[in-house]
Amino acid sequence: MEQEPQTPQPAKQGGEQTAKSSRRKSDMIALAVMIVLSVILIPVLVINVTLIIKGSTNRSVPPDVFGIAPLAVTSGSMDGDREDSFAEGALIFVRILDDGEKQSLGEGDIVTFRSSDNVYVTHRIVSVTRDEGGAIVSVVTRGDANAATDGAIPLANVVGLCTGSVGGLGDFAIFLQTPVGILVFIGIPVLLFIAYDVTRIVLYNRKVKAEEAANGAQQALGEKQSELENARSELRDKEEELARLRALVEAQGLNAEDDGHSPDEKNSDDIQKST
Predict the structure, then answer these.
(1) Inter-CA distances, 229 with 218, 219, 223, 238, 241, Å
(2) What structural domains does the chain harbor?
(3) pTM to 2 decimals?
(4) For residues 185 and 107, is the Cβ–Cβ distance under 8 A?
(5) Collapsing DSSP states into helix, strand and coil, what is residue 155?
């Protein structure tokens, strides 16, 4: 029996693997972008909210995060030629001091104090005044760019020690606390996160539905192929049965020729004998 050739199936596996690889790459890129944005924006959001809350609840000291208060420099009084001087627009980091730590202050330290009109000023100590017991009771400060001192500042008004600065970042910090800054750097990123998450969910649902449809089509194709294979098997069985019957008929014809009669003659003789 000749076996019928199998119908070749379209080569889809390579294309499906390429599509899956492309989707995985897109998902990885989107995940990386989301992680980067989260690492940058979430701390900014947390710090900004913390500073706003602390600044509105306790005005006796600058709002801080983990004991460090970031302050924007709004004047050029400290724009000097010393290594730790800073210009207008810088962002300085002030470590909040308790009463015991204030006793360790000395000449050359840059401190932040609360002025008489409740404005925070950050200038350098040029001298300290001690009581009879040696404890500091006041400090005299002056801006690096100023000629005159600020006078004696009671130690109780000193709130912290400047530990460092970043030029130009103060303007950005001030902008962050404006309504426009909050919208640009907090509101829009949050909306983008929400939009990304919604888009990801929608695309995932579409992907699941497409895979379900593809699986259903594949299953239907498999059923059709099974039916076709069954039909072919039945056809082969019929052909084999037909071949067997033909062989039987041919064998009967050969037996009749061996007796010297054709099949018709043999049948006629059989009829005469019976009569």
Answers:
(1) 16, 15, 10, 14, 18
(2) 58-177 (2.10.109.10)
(3) 0.55
(4) no
(5) helix
Cα separation, 55 vs 99, in Å, equals 21
- Per-residue pLDDT of 168-196, as tens digits, reads 888 887 787 778 877 777 777 778 778 77
φ/ψ of 136, rounded to 5, equals: -70, 130
Give the phi and the psi of residue 67 in degrees, each rounded to 5.
85, 0
pLDDT tens profile 9-39: 555 555 566 666 766 776 677 667 767 766 7
Single-letter amino acid, residue 139: V
Question: What H or E segment, with its residue span, contains residue 152?
Answer: strand 152-154
Where do runs of H (alpha helix) occur along the chain?
Answer: 13-57, 99-102, 169-176, 179-182, 188-258, 263-274
Per the DSSP assignment, residues forming a β-bridge with 71 are 92
* DSSP H or E run through 106: none
110, 124 Cβ separation under 8 angstroms: yes
* Spatial contact of 164 and 151, defined as CB atoms under 8 Å apart: no
Contact 162, 94 (CB under 8 A): yes
The Cα–Cα gap between 175 and 44 comes to 13
CA–CA gap between residue 193 and residue 187 (Å, rounded): 10
State whether residue 107 is helix, strand or coil.
coil
Structure tokens at 91: 């962002």
Token readout for 155 is 């130690």
